[in-house]
Amino acid sequence: MKAWLEGSTHDLEFLAGHFPAGDIQVGREGEKFYVSSPRLDNLPGGSGLLLDVAEDLIESVNGLGRLLNPGFERIALTGPSRRTVTSRLQRLPRIW
What is the pTM of this model? Predict the structure, then answer.
């Protein structure tokens, strides 16, 4: 399963070059970038667990990107925003 990403093309290309394989992978399809991991496979999308796992992966990727490149800027999941029951803004990833 893929979670689509947004951010600086330079930083996304940097991540794709450093994470082409493994437990966390960053890849590219055309002009779009994604993160994938076995941790995303077979999770129920409506439970919120999929979003939690995808956000955890992004936090790991952002931390590693910053560690490897001090000029690295954070990336994020793409997708529309929604208000949760607690009224805080939360991002929904586009995942297929």
Answer: 0.77
